[in-house]
Amino acid sequence: MENVIIEPQTGRALEVARGSLIEVVDLEGRQVGDMWAIDSGAPDRWLSTAHTRDRLERLFPKTGEAFTDQTGEPILELVADTSPGPHDMLYPPCNAPLYEAEGLFGHPNCHDNFLGAVTAAGLTLPVVPDPVNLFQNSPPRPDGSLPVGTAASKAGDGITFRALRDLWFVLTSCSVDNWPTNDYVCTPLAVRVTR
Ligand SMILES: [Zn+2]
Fold first, then answer.
1. Ligand 1 center–CA 65 separation, angstroms
2. N or C: fewer beta carbons within 10 Å in the chain?
3. Model confidence pLDDT, tens digit, residues 110-142
4. What is the pLDDT of residues 15-59, one digit of tens each?
5. One Pfam family this chain carries (predicted)?
6. CA of 77 to the centre of ligand 1 (A)
């Protein structure tokens, strides 16, 4: 098993073989991780949150269901989830303008950490796809609002996926420390890959 620590406010891209199990563990609890999956054989195909919602007609897959790429083809299966959830598939990654609007200039952010991780992996994407925001506690309310509360995950909670192709798995440990999202402190995540 490969065990990779994603330090607070950073990101990594890991090359994962088809059939591998990938577990993302919230080591200390209440920490969101932004996740992307990119087909390593066809890097213009990646996990699309919009197309996954379309194919499943759900806000988030159930255990045993798959996230899809932009053509609706499965790319990553949700195998198990020991966290209480919820997870988010509506928000973009946090980004510099979001922090700048709060007067925070030069703040680390998942958008730039994604770009750094894929660049280090030698990948070039035409856009930053919307991520799957693991452990992000922002379920839609009946009145249409989407307030972001503190992640409900506890230390050691994890969510497990199966790679349905050879892919690049990208995870950022979310940088938000000025909002309840991560309980105002950024902590590490672990990615455990089993062939
Ligand atoms: Zn973030």
1. 25
2. N
3. 999 999 999 999 999 999 999 999 999 999 999
4. 999 999 999 999 999 999 999 999 999 999 999 999 999 999 999
5. DUF1989
6. 23
